[in-house]
């Protein structure tokens, strides 16, 4: 109770300072500031940019952890990071890259681009969109605070029990994992629902389902996967929290619990999660290859079908992560067949990309380079995936570096390459500036070569018997030179990432030239409006008359889209500070539960959340309107 | 905008009431019957023990369908997306739960 | 207004809750949320059914469960589902008082259910069946407790919406909220159907 009292007093004190007559101008100044504007925004483009930027920050943190891992493994019997600290770096690398880098980077792109591609003025739930972002941020911060307060989680990104139980992971590390992921997971679920509702309800007239660009389609399917996969993680983390904090026995073998239960819950979530991060990359590829080949995407309908099929099959294969658990030949066989079946729709996609390029007017811009680099890299990852899907063979590969090489080929060669491609392709639409093509090509070549140098040898490390997650290896067993090679490759990826950083800095702070509305001769709706778009996106909602909506108009010799409505006053949602308050509430609550012992802080945070929810429910928010005169003025400026 | 719709709607709603209330009461009665049946087969030992689980699942499923399509209005127009997503959810839920229980 | 272009195209249903684009979004978004909840409860059911025989020499489900109590609880919740439907009919006829009456009955029945459940839990704890006593205990309280938490949240939610409806009346802003809360209440009832079938009744069979 002591902590609670102190917290309440401090909160009242702060409230008195902020609200009281201390300095009335202060409040006004805060409300007028840019920071406040961004923190309370419900504009999908600003939220998208915040997602993207925080994704980059976490990508750098995760990348640093990767460098440390490779430094430790550079030479045999190294003692740079031994035991616990290595486990922490390894766990945080995996967790950060999947949950805090790949997902927000993709969410950022989805947020900015999808509403533009379907001709919408905003997402279906602007408020929830902001809430999802702040929950994600709160969770990400909680996870990374673990480094400073009590040590990071160290049970692997899969956090298998019994290792993750109190008995074997006594510190607060795994608690940070459980609560941080729970909070950011709720944020992801909210975002998923938002994207689904946006794509279903907010499409502009004429934008039928089979006219939607592939990136929108893959976002749709990935969001559906989020919707159905996240609850399994929620339950898994909830049960693990009960076990660790409240003495429950779900996973404790001595009390009748089951450690296989965690594996099931985790992988029922975990496998769809892999598709959540790869499907949007497929969508990005389809957009870019079609644009820079100056051709309609080959086999559009089969692409859509393949996307949906991959999404559905993604839920039927989770046991292939558990072949060696001993579930028996029947379940292993069923899930092996289902896993191999996924190769079929994925193959459809690869061939469609190749056929799109076939006979096209190909322009090798940086975005296109990333896309072209994606295809062979991802095919290697897919091929080793089929190898791993054969249960008897998997008993050999399991938990070896072969698996590490496999999933880095799909997650870096797939997702990260896709994200870089998208960054170069949509950067002008997001920021109104261009990224430098020369620097981009330098980044591509260094990163591409470095990547293959790091991860291709790891296949052989695995085949030669090096287990994953182990912090060192012996000399003279044939692993030294391959490990050294693998570490040297990191230099290339580091150089590439640095070049990307310089490129971002240059485009945002040095380069003064504005990006044109349509720098790539684009085919979809987002290229029909200015870069960056005005806050209402489309002055008049466009009428879509075919697949590749903008290209249809260009073919018809038109400069602009056909409007679907007369110019009129536009309704906009008003910004709100409540999502931030709710996120602060869950943040305090999460930290309170991690601190253990006294749960008053945890409950205090939940009370903040509850109060903010009531305030939101009772608030009458009519938004505001942008009048036609202002829109005309904007148009004048652009022209 | 809000005012307009407020004024225009009352007369539209008249057709809504009587038959739908009847339908709700009938499906409520059906749910009660199904519930009683479920309790009856367990408490009174009237069926083979290995038939109890299938019967319980059968009764429960009918109740779910009744809830969804009468109480939650999935029988109306414009609910295709709701239906698709709920039933996809049910399929994934069944696969996951059966996976957890059996393995 | 921005939303009108969308609204007019789909006016086949004369329902207040989906009269505006915002309302339509809300109802759709809530159905999506319910689809996620289906998977969430499936995982909890799977966990319970996988662990239910692990009683660790504590009382078994056969010894614990009292079906008479469950019959009463089921009757309460099923009836509240019906009264919630009546409230929605009243809402679409714009009869505020009638709606408030049925919502009040719904909340009352929900509260009665909740009290019964708390009584049941206290009773079990006295018999040595606790959250920490065994994997069976943990799984039982996690599943039934999560359902109970949903009921609690539903009661608070519907009550606060009753206050809003009293203050602002039934309009295109409050109607979607009320409708969505009633969907939630029916969903809770659906989950309970599976709890009494698969937890209590199946628990009595063994």
Automatic annotation (TrEMBL), chain B:
InterPro entries: Cyt_c_oxidase_su4_prok, Cytochrome_c_oxidase_bac_sub4. It is found in: Cell membrane. GO terms for biological process: aerobic electron transport chain; electron transport coupled proton transport. The chain crosses the membrane at residues 25-43, 55-74, 80-102. It holds the Pfam family COX4_pro. The keyword rRNA-binding does not apply. Keywords: Cell membrane, Membrane, Transmembrane, Transmembrane helix. It is a multi-pass membrane protein. GO terms for cellular component: cytochrome o ubiquinol oxidase complex; plasma membrane. One of its GO terms (molecular function) is cytochrome bo3 ubiquinol oxidase activity. Signal peptide: none annotated. The keyword Glycosyltransferase does not apply. Belongs to the cytochrome c oxidase bacterial subunit 4 family. This is Cytochrome C oxidase subunit IV family protein. It comes from Polycladospora coralii.
TrEMBL record, chain C:
GO terms for cellular component: plasma membrane. It is found in: Cell membrane. The keyword Ubl conjugation does not apply. GO terms for molecular function: cytochrome-c oxidase activity. Its main location: membrane. Keywords: Cell membrane, Membrane, Transmembrane, Transmembrane helix. It comes from the Bacteria. It is a multi-pass membrane protein. Belongs to the cytochrome c oxidase subunit 3 family. This is Cytochrome (Ubi)quinol oxidase subunit III. It comes from Polycladospora coralii.
